[in-house]
Amino acid sequence: MLDFDFLEPASVAEASRMLADLGDECRVIAGGTALMLGMRQRMLTPSHLVSLGRLGALRGIALDERGGLRIGALTLHAEVAASPLVRERFPMLASMAARVANPQVRNQGTIGGNLCYADPSTDPPGCLLALNAQVVLASARGERVLALSDFLVDYYTTALEPDELLSEIRVPALPADASGQYARFLRTAAEHRPLVSVAFVARRQGAVCTEARIAVGASTPIPVRLPRAEAYLAGKTVTADVAAEAADLVAADIEPVSDARGDADFRRDMVRVVARRNIAGLFGLPQE
Amino acid sequence: MSQHPITLTVNGEAVQSTVPARRLLSDFLRDDLHLTGTKRGCETGICGACSVLVDGQVVKSCLSLAVQHSGRAITTVEGLSQGETLHPLQESFMQCGGLQCGYCTPGFLMTSCAMLAANPSPSEDEVRHGLNGNLCRCTGYTQIVESILTAAEKMRGN
Question: Cβ A104–B60 below 8 Å, yes or no?
């Protein structure tokens, strides 16, 4: 790892000014689990790291006035997984966070760091997309709120301006008749990165799906919503055949990446399987 | 490049030092404090041989900088025993054959130590999931799992 200077601003405004002054030469470090790897391999060679270690106000989980979640960007994956608030109101988010990488990384990596790194092969972005999450971007100039779908621009690329920090993730309350489930496929039981993920949120009356949100992650450069499959499910009584048909639409509408971990055809096939099982599973149907 | 004074607790003892920004926690423990029980394995965050406890939570010490841990309490494998008395996990790894070459063992001990602190009565499945961030190329894991379940029982006082 090449030498660098380590800066520890005491406020978001101070951090933002440092980022503005240093430009492309610097990187933000939160937990560091992803950044350290990039720097050790010299894929990233910043002259300065701006640490968020002193910005304790960016850590923690609270309910907003409408029953949604406000998750500080520096909240650890393990804290999201263990939070009684998250487990009670957004079990799908807690279940996702409990599966990120491995216990050690969950104890050190932050949810905000994960989103800013924009590595496609991780769990949080797809799950948060199906939950209609928003992100708060803060700088010395003020704050702005973006939909997660506008924040995630491309492979390892976000809408962050050079002087901005991700400060908070907002997850709006789900309607009372909605529930959701996060499912994924790993090539081996010990693999830390999903090959495919499908997040599914549905409003339902009995076996009828009145509204659906489906997001595929880990197989595409950024997670994507599937409007055709969502529209197909809306108003349908969900049977095994309906789940399979919706999964076919999901698989047909993505443009999977091909890389050493899996080619596009394999990923598309696995997206179809995971989507079918997830949709069937949420409606209490056999998943095979 | 930048140098940083750090103050932290390592295995119950106060430590003051000055480190360059790029000093990894794993290198600080091994090269500066000569606590070589913490192993450098893959150094890419996969194998877990470098696992230590930070304020009681297990992390991989190759994935963070020493300067990030100022003010924290670190426990390494050297901090598990009480003098000559081994920790129940160390005892059970010996008794159950939870190691062969032993290189991954400090990492497994620290991970299982944190696991049992959070959940004193894990099922076999929970133990296996809890070991997801540690690799062993010798044992095939069966005896490691057995070691941890045995230690858990001992620590519960049965």
Answer: yes
DSSP A44-108: ---SEEEE-TT-GGG--EEE-TTS-EEEETT-BHHHHHH-HHHHHH-HHHHHHHTTSS-HHHHTT
Can you give the pLDDT at residue A191?
84
Residues 6+ apart with CB under 8 A from A37: B44, B45, B63
Per-residue pLDDT at A189: 79
Q: Which of the pair, A192 or A271, is modelled with greater confidence?
A: A271
Q: Please name which of A39, A17, A112 lies closest in space to residue A70, comparing C-alpha atoms.
A: A112
pLDDT tens, A230-260? 999 999 999 999 999 999 999 999 999 999 9
Say if residue A25 is in the same domain as residue A78. no
Q: Which of the listed residues B79, B112, B134 is the one where a domain comes to its end? A: B79
Residues on chain A touching B22 (C-beta within 8 angstroms): 1-4
Q: Do both A46 and A82 map to the same domain?
A: no
Split into its structural domains, chain B has a count of 2
Chain B contact set for A1 (CB, 8 A): 22, 24
The CATH number of whichever domain residue A25 belongs to comes to: 3.30.43.10
Burial class (CB in 10 A: 0-12, 13-18, 19+), B15: middle
What's the CATH number where B140 sits?
1.10.150.120
Q: Quick one: A188 and A261 in the same domain?
A: yes
Which range marks the domain in which residue B114 is found?
88-155
The tens digit of pLDDT for each residue in A48-87 reads 999 999 999 999 999 999 999 999 999 999 999 999 999 9
- Edge-first strand order for the sheet with A5-7 is A5-7, A48-51, A26-29
Per-residue pLDDT, averaged over A129-156, amounts to 98
| Cα–Cα distance for residue pair A128/A85, rounded to 1 Å | 16
Mutate to test the interface with A, among B55, B68, B108 (most CBs of A within 10 A): B68
Which of A171, A197, A230 is where one domain is finished?
A: A171
- Domain assignment present for A288: no
Residues B57, B19, single domain; the answer is yes
Rounded mean pLDDT, A30-55: 96
Place B158 in a pLDDT band, splitting at 50, 70 and 90: low
Q: Do A5 and B21 touch (CB under 8 A)?
A: yes
